[in-house]
Structures are given as C-alpha cells and as structure tokens.
C-alpha cells in the first residue's frame, strides 16, 4: 500500500490514530502478521506503550529480562513527555524524508535506525538519571541488535533520521542537532589525538551521507551537507556542502529549503 499524501500535519493524537489505522489495514492485508502487529501496536493504548514493548522485546537477552527493560521504559516514558515527543518527531522525520517509507508503522516495526535511536534515547535518559551501568547495557544491546553504537552521554536532537543504520558510531562528547539526517556507516568520532571533549558538534538540519567520518571536536554548521564517503577533519561552515578525503567545501547547500514541519508541530527545543 502506498501513502501518497506524506507531508501531512499530524498532531500528537493523530500520529497514534494513523498508526492504529495502518495497523488494522496491514493485518487485513497480511493476516500472518496479525500476531506481530497486535502484540506490537494494536494491543497498546499509546505510542509510548508500544515503543516500551518494542524496546524491551528487542533488547532483552539471557542476562536481562524483557520485564525489567519494560519497567525501565514505562518509567522513562511516563516521567515526562520528552521521550514520547522525540519519538514522534523522529517517526515523522523518517515518514517525511525517506522515500521508502509510506506508512508510520514501517519504522516502528521494521526499521532499525528508528528503533536504535529510541533505544539510544532510553540509554540517554538512564545516563541523565545517573544510572550509568544500565545505560551502558542499553548501548551494548543496541550495538548488538542494530549495529548502532551511540554512547549514552552523546546528545542528539529530535526529528532525526538514521537511514539503513548499519555501522553507526557516535562518540561520548558528540552532539547532533535537531532535524538531522544521516545514512549508514557514519562515524562521529575522535581523532584519537584528543582527550575530554573530543567529538564533533553537528548543527541543525545537517545531512550526513553514507560512510562519512567526522573526526575531532569540530563543528558542522546548520543546514550543511557532508557527501558520502567524506572524511571531515575541519570545521564546516553553515549552509555548505563538503566532500572528499579530507573533505573540502565544494559549494552551497540547502539553506533556502524550509524547515521540516514536524519540528514546528511538536515544539522541539534544545537537545539535552
Ligand atoms: C590519521 C590521524 C591519526 C591523524 O594523524 P596525524 O598524523 O596527526 O595527521 P594530522 O591531523 O596532522 O593531518 C596530517 C594530514 O593528513 C590528513 N589526514 C588526517 N587524517 C586523515 C584521514 N583520516 N584521511 C585522510 N587524510 C587525513 C590531514 O588533512 C592533513 O593533511 P594536510 O597536511 O594536507 O593538511 C587521524 O586523523 C585519524 O584518522 N585517526 C583515526 C580516527 C578514527 O578512526 N576515529 C574513529 C573513532 S570512533
């Protein structure tokens, strides 16, 4: 089923209503997925409850039960609207920007970039609570399950899309702005020559192409683009495109493009 009117305005309740409608249609179209879609989506009363279920199902292991992870996730989602709002903004970012995404249920059920990002958000929530070892556990399982290794102390804004998401590495002191898109095999890492604050600071609205390596405590300005396969070792000004190894400015980038509407709708602010 294709969903043609993708760039729609969806408020908080409308997101969940659309997810439930899509789920019912999906079960009708493929009854063999009925159990999965019921357990994963239709059984729940909110997006947060569905995400808590999915987080615990995917990250449970022989040494950590689904029940314990579910309790943590329920506690996190009920502690404030922040995590749920971030998840909605991320979901709408994928729906809006990924041409292969035609329904909201796809990222929740099938796309590891979205699921890994929500798992990172859970780990970051634990980190901010001072529950460092549980946060490290979540980081480890996220890496094992999804191939996405994000340090729980890293700070990531909302409305973020990680497409394909194999082999993503984001270091401890990295920051990623709102409305950022990145493809697979992106590293936001250190050069190996610095201690302390040693990772990149990515501005809002930046697009990072597949395989790009951004190394060191350098800033990448708002609405810039980093070409696939680049190695970025120096600061990138706003609204520029950089490419190559090592990366150089090759032109302007996308400043005139309007912001994605999901950030405005969900009132996302500074990333914490
Ligand atoms: C290679 C590395 C160790 C730097 O070595 P260095 O000898 O100190 O190099 P410098 O930073 O002084 O740069 C020297 C030159 O090499 C270039 N250079 C450095 N790293 C480079 C890289 N990875 N690819 C291509 N060129 C690179 C620099 O642009 C510079 O070129 P220039 O002299 O024309 O300006 C470092 O850049 C690197 O790649 N470290 C690995 C980091 C990593 O894997 N991080 C992931 C962590 S998760």
Report, as a whole number of angstroms, the end-to-end distance: 37 Å
CATH class of the largest domain: Mainly Alpha
Q: Poorly predicted ranges (pLDDT <50, ≥5 residues)?
A: 1-5, 258-269
Q: Estimate nothing, just give the exact number of structural domains.
A: 2
Percent of residues in beta strands: 5-15%
Distinct ligands: coenzyme A
Estimate percent helicity.
Answer: 40-55%
CATH topology grouping of the largest domain:
serine acetyltransferase, domain 1
> What's the rounded overall pLDDT mean?
91
Q: What overall geometry do the principal axes of the alpha carbons give?
A: globular
Number of strands: 15
Element string (H = helix, E = strand): HHHHHHHHEEEEEEEEEEEEEEEH
Main β-sheet description:
6 strands, mixed
CATH architecture descriptor name of the largest domain: Orthogonal Bundle
Please tell me how large the radius of gyration is. 18 Å
The secondary structure category is alpha/beta
- In the sheet with the most strands, the strands line up as 3-6-9-12-14-15
